[in-house]
Specification:
The chain is of the alpha/beta class. It has a domain of 243 residues: Aspartate Aminotransferase, domain 2, CATH 3.40.640.10. The chain is 39% helix and 17% strand. The strands form three sheets. A seven-stranded mixed β-sheet has the order 4-10-9-8-7-5-6, with helices on both faces. A four-stranded mixed β-sheet has the order 1-2-3-13. A four-stranded antiparallel β-sheet has the order 11-12-15-14, covered by helices on one side. It is globular and about 60 Å long.
Length: 396
């Protein structure tokens, strides 16, 4: 089929839940993808912060091939070798003692919400079930996670929402502490708000939130679905604050494109889950575990975090030069390779024009350009993207 025939087929048979660009992607390698017509693109979206090692990384591909020849699926009725090995790797490199595996960020956050409530019910009292989350946050698309998400646009049309969520402004400690009530069991937040526009709190914010949680004997849940697995230059963004959460959620880059999610917790909290409390048929699937194990080992062993820090600093500097040149760029902000340009105009047309010139970028919140490229990008990749962005913005 040609491009037009494939797009028509998709429009006829797939539910209209995405506003897709009129392009059919068929191949990826490293930081580049190609469409069905053979056009090459430099990918600064990376599957929405998923392909941190780039597309079709050799170690991940090899791990999947090897596992696919041995075992696809047996369920969690049985022990699974790559699942145990990945769990050990995550525990050894984080605050956590236990891991629950699932298939996506929304599922990981759903599991975290359930675990927080179960722990509170057993240890703090049945009346403690409320979670405080942040305005402009994003935690997923299930009923619980859209309720946790502090953006009405994601909740519209799906009321009544789940009971027991309160929203406060991000980076506002006074509002946070004032929102705590006798029913509060925990605080759930992203270390950096990704879908909200790469909003970075004050340096000591997360440490202060930890203090508030300790003071009131409530849980701290850190959603690292987008910030985790190296996106900010550390394996997990909470590490910058020198604190440890009680629960953490992961997905996106964990499998470098293979669907996988994880919810991690300390022993104290994790023991609230017992057989029958929570489950996932495909969670911890051998293929997903093999992909995630290879991805995580590569991140840890091959200098990817160091490259992320260096290229993130360079990219920020180049974008700030553009800010000085173009008045429509109001602010440049970011950490590692999670970077945004806030505009004073709508950004959709800039995204379209960059794509026409062979660079894929993203716009979130209408007026914020988001750059979440593979962590393996080079200075020449950044220079190419910035030069094209310069051309596009100049034309505005």
């Amino acid at each position: 089929m040609n491009e037009q025939e494939l797009m028509a087929l998709a429009n006829e048979n797939i539910m209209n839940t995405y506003k897709r660009f009129p392009v059919v992607m068929v191949k990826g390698a490293g930081q580049k993808v190609w469409d069905i017509n053979g056009k090459e693109y430099l990918d600064f979206v990376a599957g929405i912060a998923v392909c941190n090692l780039g597309h079709c990384h050799p170690r991940v591909v090899a791990a999947l091939k090897e596992q696919a020849q041995k075992l696809f699926h047996v369920s969690n009725f049985y022990y699974i070798e790559p699942q145990a090995l990945l769990a050990k790797l995550l525990v050894d490199n984080s605050f956590a003692d236990k891991v629950f595996f699932c298939n996506s960020g929304a599922e990981a956050n759903e599991a975290a919400i359930k675990l927080a409530r179960k722990y509170a019910h057993e240890n703090l009292g049945a009346d403690k079930f409320e979670l405080i989350t942040m305005k402009d946050s994003f935690h997923g698309r299930t009923m619980a996670t859209i309720t946790a998400t502090g953006q009405e646009k994601f909740q519209f049309g799906f009321t009544p929402l789940l009971e027991g969520f309160t929203y406060v402004p991000f980076n506002d400690l006074r509002a946070l502490e004032n929102a705590i009530s006798a029913k509060t069991c925990g605080i759930m937040l992203e270390p950096i708000q990704g879908e909200g526009g790469v909003i970075i709190p004050d340096d000591k914010y997360l440490a202060k939130v930890r203090e508030i949680c300790d003071k009131h004997n409530i849980l701290l849940i850190v959603d690292e679905v987008q910030t985790g697995i190296g996106r900010t230059g550390k394996l997990f963004a909470y590490e910058y604050s020198g604190i440890e959460p009680d629960i953490m959620t992961l997905a996106k880059a964990l499998g470098n494109g293979f669907p996988v999610g994880a919810m991690l917790a300390t022993n104290k909290i994790a023991k609230a889950f017992t057989p029958g409390n929570h489950a996932s048929t495909f969670g911890g699937n051998p293929l997903a575990m093999a992909a995630a194990k290879a991805s995580l080992e590569t991140i840890l062993q091959e200098g990817v975090l160091d490259n992320c820090c260096k290229m993130g600093e360079y990219f920020l500097g180049q974008l700030k030069k553009l800010q000085g040149k173009h008045k429509i760029i109001k602010e440049v902000r970011g950490k590692g390779l999670m970077i945004a340009c806030a505009l004073d105009i709508e950004g959709a047309e800039i995204v379209n024009e960059c794509m026409k010139r062979g660079v894929l970028i993203n716009c979130t919140g209408g007026k914020t350009l988001r750059f979440i490229p593979p962590l393996i990008i080079t200075k020449s990749d950044i220079d190419q993207a910035v030069a094209i962005l310069d051309e596009v913005v100049e034309a505005k």
